[in-house]
Design a protein that fits this description.
This protein is α+β, with helices and mostly antiparallel strands. It folds into 3 domains: 37 residues; 101 residues; 244 residues, DD-peptidase/beta-lactamase superfamily (Beta-lactamase, 3-Layer(aba) Sandwich), CATH 3.40.710. Helices cover 30% and strands 27% of the residues. It is built from 10 helices and 19 strands. Helix 5 packs across helix 6.
């Protein structure tokens, strides 16, 4: 038997040991690959971000209003608020224009709808006594009698058409319990309307302590003409009520130059005061503009100056298109694909006062990683334009599809 020398062992191969090492590396590689797949699939996907396009606001333009040459004045429009003022906006006696607040306050306490006559008011001896007091002061009035039954609507007609001081008192007491309680209410209520310089000492405006600025009264006019019952009454040339019979609107400009209201005022302390409202159709939309002139020498002067002033208000209104249909208003950035635009479904247009800048607001909702494609024409937000009080909306639609991320995209290196 042959003995193997020690140096001969180096040439002996161990195939099983080498094969086991190779299999170990394969296992490691598989485990690493599985770990990479698992972490890639578990890794949070980046957000789909949205960006709204910055729309250029329409610049305001200079509006030439035909202001009076003296006193103070203000203009506005229903749904748009006060649009401009002229002169020192200090508190002046309002005269009978204060009756517009009386009508608004009574309807605040005792609401009426168009076509309703409202509750019946029974005239008392106190009402007759107050009527006689007004007559002795040579104030505007309507005759009343004890036991007379007059509806709320008829009483408002007596208040606003012939400007009856005694009916202002009767309505204030009927609605609020006393004229003192009435003035307490309206002095708070007027502040909610933005009438910061106003103070009411009575319901009729006969008191020189009932004061406001023309801007205050323009705010009052906007709110009054926004009330359909008041707007209906002040547009009536005449009416028939109990006891007094036929009564007439003292607004001599009613029906001229589109004028549909609202109230005259004239006292020694106030001079001439005129609150006017006129209506005009602009691009199919009815616009009701208001003007107030205070501190005129007399009522006739205030009324004459109101015609060119209120007509000039309408020159500042026009229809504009803020966003056109199919206009790009935003973009979604998709990390695993190209960007997708957002477009407007329809025009966003309306009638605006061009004395103020106008813009549209765009709101796009977040889109998370979709479980299925988000298809073109899906609504993803809204576009809103403000046209005075009115708001016009358009849907914001995807211009293309947002697909799910491809599976292989998930396995991209983290630094990509």
């Amino acid at each position: 038997m042959r003995v193997v020398e020690p140096h001969e062992f180096k040439d002996v191969k161990h195939p099983k040991k080498k094969r086991g090492r190779r299999n170990g590396w394969r296992t490691v590689i598989v485990l690493v690959a599985l770990l990479y797949v698992a972490t890639s699939l578990a890794r949070p996907l980046p957000a789909i971000t949205s960006t709204a396009t910055a729309l250029t606001p329409l610049e305001s333009k200079k509006i030439t209003l035909r202001w009076p040459t003296h006193g103070q004045a203000a203009v506005g429009a229903v749904g748009y608020g006060v649009l401009g003022t002229y002169g020192d906006q200090k508190a002046l006696p309002t005269a009978s224009v204060a009756k517009v607040m009386a009508a608004l306050a009574v309807l605040k306490q005792k609401p009426l709808k168009v076509g309703e006559k409202g509750p019946t008011i029974v005239i008392t001896q106190d009402d007759v006594d107050y009527y006689q007091k007004v007559v002795s002061e040579d104030g505007s009035n309507v005759p009343v009698a004890v036991g007379e039954e007059i509806t709320q609507y008829e009483a408002l007609q007596a208040l606003l058409l012939p400007s009856a001081n005694n009916m202002a008192h009767t309505l204030a007491v009927w609605a609020y319990g006393s004229e003192k309680q009435y003035t307490a209410f309206v002095n708070n209520f007027s502040k909610t309307l933005g009438m910061n310089n106003a103070h009411f000492d009575d319901a009729s405006g006969y008191s020189p302590e009932t004061v406001a600025s023309s801007e205050d009264l323009a705010r009052l006019a906007v709110n009054a003409m926004d009330n359909p019952v008041i707007a209906e009454i002040v547009a009536q040339p005449d009416a028939v009520i109990p006891v007094a019979g036929r009564i007439y609107n003292v607004n001599a400009l009613l029906g001229r130059d589109g004028i549909v209201g609202v109230k005259t005022g004239n006292t020694e302390q106030a001079g001439g005061v005129f609150m006017a409202a006129a209506s005009r159709d602009i691009s199919g939309q009815r616009i009701v503009a208001v003007s107030v002139i205070m501190g005129a020498t007399n009522l006739g002067e205030a009324m004459r100056n109101s015609v060119p002033l209120i007509n000039s208000v309408f020159d500042g209104f026009e229809q504009v298109t803020l966003v056109k249909a199919s206009q790009v208003v935003g973009t979604y950035t998709v990390p695993w694909g190209s960007s997708v635009n957002v477009t407007a479904k329809q025009d966003v247009k309306g009638v605006v006062w061009r004395g103020n800048p106008i813009k549209a607001d765009i709101a796009l909702r977040p889109i998370t990683v979709p479980q299925e494609p988000v298809l073109a024409q899906t609504q993803v937000g809204s576009i809103q334009g403000s046209f005075g009080r009115a708001q016009v909306d358009s849907a914001a639609l995807l211009a293309g599809d947002i697909q799910q991320p491809p599976l292989l995209w998930r396995f991209r290196p983290r630094f990509i």
